[in-house]
Amino acid sequence: MTIFFNSLYIVFVFYITYAHSMKKNLNWPLEAASSSEATQRWSHPASNICLDFHGDPITAGLAVFSDGNHHMALEASLQSFRHQNPEVVDIFYATTPPSVIVNLLTNGQIVLGNLTLSRLPNIFISPKGIMDKLKAEGYVDSHQAFMQSRGNVLLVRKDNPKNIQGIEDLLRDEVRLFISNPKTEKASYDVYEETLLALAEEQNLDQSAFKTLLSDQCPRLVVGERIHHREAPQCLYDDNADVALIYYHLALRYTRIFPDIFDIIPLGGTKEEPQFSKNNVTTDYHIGVVGNGSKWGESFFDYMFSDVVTQLYAEHGLQRP
After folding, report:
1. Looking at the structure, do residues 143 and 72 belong to the same domain, yes or no?
2. 277 in a structural domain
3. How many CA atoms lie within 13 A of 166 on its CB side?
4. Cα-based distances in Å from 185 to 95, 129, 181, 182, 225
5. pLDDT tens-digit series, residues 122-179
């Protein structure tokens, strides 16, 4: 009998631990240019899952590599383009930090777990500095800014247990801040750092205190590894941080797909109508055709400057430059 109850206890503990681990993974929705509802999805949120490579690299007539921060608006634009051009069949697209897709472009392949991917892009999208390097190396002949972020906000859990209302609360001893990695995601980190320091000066707060907060020595700073547009909400969900400084359009996405989990703290204005001062730093997103663009590259490049895409990006919290 003792052996039975001990075994039952072990099974119970395993079940509770397993259920808890499952609960602690955000259930991201399907993201793709075409519907894959009829196709089996085989993944586990703690193991075999790939969130930032979308579509079929074999059948796709168009391949787009983009930084991931505006992935939700890009997805909508790709769906619209495919709807108007069904003969493209599918669109394969990547939405990782720039360093990942740059390495994939220059090296010709990437290893995802045990899967090797060798599909190269017809279109590349990234901030200006990245695109300037690709132009200098001959991967694109030219590039052009097509979209811009509106600014940055604070993301918190829905109940906001630390009652965070602005950047001044980031200096409180009990508040843990998540921010993107300054090495693996330098483009976004620089935007967040510049915003935090500029707003501190604007609000007559101690800039040196914020510099200390962002230093390697601060135990309250939680730094992402390499994919902050996935890591930031997961980190808050896991209660490993209390707040994240993040692009408004990313925070808007999280509150839409996980409305019971996350909330936005604006750095000006209200949650419904945030206001962004000149010190809330923005990012311009540039687009360029890789090589000759194959059959669909030039058409998609032109489409990204259309009124349809303007509206789609606006719905996701971005704007034309």
Report:
1. yes
2. no
3. 11
4. 13, 13, 5, 6, 8
5. 999 999 999 999 999 999 999 999 999 999 999 999 999 999 999 999 999 999 999 9
Residue 4 pLDDT more than 70? Answer: no
Residue whose entry in the numeric block shows the structure tokens 């859990």: 157
Give the DSSP H/E element, type plus range, for residue 24: none
Sheet containing 53-54: order of strands: 53-54, 91-96, 62-67, 123-127, 284-289, 144-149, 318-319
Beta-bridge mates of residue 319: 148
Q: Which letter, b or e, does each residue of 174-209 get, where b requires 16 or more Cβ atoms within 10 Å of its Cβ?
A: ebbbbbbbbebbbbbbbbbbebbbbbbeeeebeeee
| Phi, psi dihedral angles at 194 (to 5 degrees) | -60, -40
Tokens of 228: 């902050």
266-276 burial: b if 16+ Cβ within 10 Å, else e? bbbeeeeebeb
* 207-211, 268-272, 278-282: range with lowest mean pLDDT: 268-272
Q: How many domains, the chain? A: 2
* pLDDT classification of 10: cutoffs 50, 70, 90: very low
Q: Which domain holds residue 69?
A: 53-148+283-319
User: Are 147 and 285 within 8 A, CB to CB?
Assistant: yes
DSSP string for 142-181: --EEEEEE--EEEEEETT-TT---SGGGGGSTT--EEE--
* CB-based contacts of 119, cutoff 8 Å, min separation 6: 57, 60, 63, 92
Extract the tokens encoding 159.
């109940």
CA 149 to chain centre: 13
Q: 0.85 cut: is pTM over it?
A: yes
**Which amino acid appears at position 245 of this protein?**
L
Domain membership of residue 121 (yes or no) is yes
